[in-house]
Design goal:
This protein has about 90 residues and is mainly α. The chain has one domain. It is about 80% helix and about 0% strand. The chain has four helices and no strands. α1 packs antiparallel against α4, α2 packs across α3 and α3 packs antiparallel against α4. The mean pLDDT is about 85.
């Protein structure tokens, strides 16, 4: 009984921190791939910056921004599922 009530209250900060950390993992993948010379999107971005391939840089940034915006949307939707006090439609 205590676990059910406690779990709903403690999941909100866990979802928040989880979303932020997952966003940082994606953002710092560029550094990891560059340092270890792993092939991937981060390595492609650095190579495109060096060769001044602007369309690839813009496409990478647009994909990253879209992914992070979708991640924030998922976190906000999870808030409404976890906490019934949070409403999507405003104050009614």
């Amino acid at each position: 009984m205590l676990g059910v009530h406690l779990l709903k209250n403690i999941l909100i900060p866990i979802v928040t921190i989880g979303g932020l950390e997952y966003g940082q993992v994606i953002a710092f993948a560029v550094v990891t791939e560059t340092v270890f010379s792993w092939p991937g999107m981060g390595k492609l971005l650095i190579d495109s910056i060096i060769t001044l391939d602007r369309p690839v840089v813009v496409a990478y940034l647009m994909l990253t921004v879209l992914f992070l915006a979708m991640l924030n949307l998922v976190v906000d939707i999870l808030y409404t599922l976890l906490d019934p006090r949070v409403r999507l439609g405003g104050q009614t």
